[in-house]
Amino acid sequence: MNTESLTKKSGHLAWCALIALHFAKSDGQVNSEYQENVFLTCWLATALKQHRFPRETAPDIVWLLKQGRTLGPRAKMRHKLDYLWRSCTGELSAQNDLFRLTYALETAKEMHWVYRRLTDREWTGRNAVAMNDSVNAVYLLYSSLNTAFDDDGNQIPPLMARITGNVARLEKLLDSCSWQTKSCPEEAMLFQLMASGNSHNNV
Predict the structure, then answer these.
(1) What is residue 112's predicted lDDT score, i.e. its pLDDT?
(2) CA distance 92 to 71
(3) Domain segments of the chain as ranges
(4) Helix 3-26, helix 33-49: angle, nearest 10
(5) What is the predicted pLDDT for the residue at 5?
(6) How far, in whole angstroms, is CA 126 from its chain's centroid?
(7) Residues of the chain with pLDDT under 70
(8) What are the phi and psi torsion angles at 170 (to 5°)?
(9) Cα torsion through 96, 101, 106, 111, rounded to 10
(10) Distance in angstroms (rounded) separating the CA atoms of residues 152 and 149
(11) DSSP 163
């Protein structure tokens, strides 16, 4: 099976789950994040048991079920399904820079990357957060993040980040979300993050 066909099937799975949740909310069955998690977990478990979707989507269902059962409401199942649907239907590429970056970083967290936003005090100087280049982690400078986007979520200046661990893997993930990295030669582990094709980024 080619990648495009699998992507469409995963997108269809996510769409069906979101529609089922919408009807459950309309019927008054779901009124909180806790109920959302319970409903979606049960719905996915039933879908897997009854083979409602092609077997190629089973890994997606199993992963979502594990998230829902392990994390409860903190799994934010609806958001994960929404991200899955948007990315599989081409919707991700149509989103603004901030949305695509958020999607990439949330995905990195699900891949067990450390993600933190650091204050200026934590970024540099004697109180700077210690970093281990063997740990997969991405740190954003909060003050840089705070000024990096306009009101429409489009990037203005480059965003400063420190990246440790498997940098190439994170770069591949960011690239899939139309973001790029540029290393800063003056300091190891320091990078600029830039939305692809952003004309404001003159670096």
Answers:
(1) 82
(2) 25
(3) 3-92, 97-195
(4) 130
(5) 60
(6) 32
(7) 1-6, 110, 198-203
(8) -65, -40
(9) 130
(10) 8
(11) E
In the prediction, which pLDDT does 65 show? 95
Interatomic CA distance for residues 67 and 38, integer angstroms: 12
pLDDT at 84: 84
> Token match 């495009």: residue?
4
- 105: tokens are 């970083």
In this structure, how many other beta carbons lie within 10 angstroms of the beta carbon of residue 154?
14
Q: With CA atoms as reference, report the closest residue to 31 among 64, 73, 67, 70.
A: 73
- Asked whether 145 and 119 are in contact (CB, 8 A), the reply is no
DSSP summary character for residue 41: H
